From TrEMBL:
It holds the Pfam family COX2. Keywords: Copper, Electron transport, Membrane, Metal-binding, Mitochondrion, Mitochondrion inner membrane, Respiratory chain, Translocase, Transmembrane, Transmembrane helix, Transport. It comes from Tricholoma lobayense. It is found in: Mitochondrion inner membrane. This is Cytochrome c oxidase subunit 2. Its cofactor is Cu cation. One of its GO terms (cellular component) is mitochondrial inner membrane. It catalyses: 4 Fe(II)-[cytochrome c] + O2 + 8 H(+)(in) = 4 Fe(III)-[cytochrome c] + 2 H2O + 4 H(+)(out).
Length: 251
């Protein structure tokens, strides 16, 4: 029997009681997961070492076994050097890959497509300024959460929207994010996106979707009473399909 489920992507949306990351769809988020796992490895080693030292000291050096401490065991130059130098080396080992990833994610490399994202109370607006409609205006639309009463079979409650953000795969996409009223946060975990939408300020981020799919996110900044009801849906499609969609949206 074929183990088809081993090749199936399940987590482009949050799962109930999910513990851990969603599946990566961009190089940036792959780097984030790798850095997390690397730091987690150091954390496990440090935790076991600290607990082993604490247990050893409590067990072997209690007042019953050592009522009088030897005066030459109260200080140890070599030991103090070890517990000073070792954390410094570990911090350096963590710092270099984290700085490298930070600068790589901040770099905007000749974007193929620029999309403006505006956060409102409580929905998102998108503008494709690189394309224009038949009337000569930019392609823009609003994206609202689909109410429970209007959900169709296969759609997700509190996550699906009426108008998705459509992007092509294998293309550098630049998002320019701002807010219209209060501070929002544009976050899509599978794409490694999380950027504040601040009124009066333009923040930018770039990403490259490596595979077609539909990716779900939500506003991650408390922005009012309906903060939990302004989801984000990004659909990555092939370049021909994207051009077909652009053609239909421009009419």
């Amino acid at each position: 029997m074929s183990l088809f489920f081993l090749n199936t992507i399940f987590n482009d949306m949050p799962e109930p009681w999910q513990f851990g990351f969603q599946d990566s769809a961009t190089p940036g988020f792959t780097g984030i997961v790798t850095l997390h796992n690397t730091i987690g490895f150091y954390l496990i080693i440090i935790s076991f070492s600290v607990f082993w030292l604490l247990f050893s000291i409590i067990y072997y050096y209690n007042s019953n076994k050592h009522p009088i401490a030897h005066k030459y065991l109260t200080h140890g130059t070599v030991l103090e050097l070890i517990w000073t130098v070792t954390p410094a080396v570990i911090l350096i080992a963590i710092a270099f890959p984290s700085f490298r990833l930070l600068y790589l994610m901040d770099e905007v490399i000749s974007p193929t497509l620029t999309i403006k994202v505006v956060g409102h109370q409580w929905y998102w607006s998108y503008e494709y300024s690189d394309f224009i409609t038949d009337s000569g205006e930019s392609i823009d639309f609003d994206s609202y959460m689909i109410p429970d009463s209007d959900l169709e079979l296969g759609q997700f409650r509190l996550l699906d929207v009426d108008n998705k953000l459509i992007v092509p795969v294998d293309c550098h996409i630049r998002l320019i994010v701002t807010g219209a009223d209060v501070i929002h946060s544009y976050a899509v975990p599978s794409l490694g996106l999380k950027l504040d939408a601040v009124p009066g300020r333009l923040n930018q981020v770039s990403f490259l979707a490596e595979r077609p799919g539909t990716y779900y996110g939500q506003c991650s900044e408390i922005c009012g009473v309906w903060h939990g009801f302004m989801p984000i849906v990004v659909e990555a499609v092939s370049s021909p399909d994207f051009l077909v969609w652009i053609d239909s949206a421009s009419q």
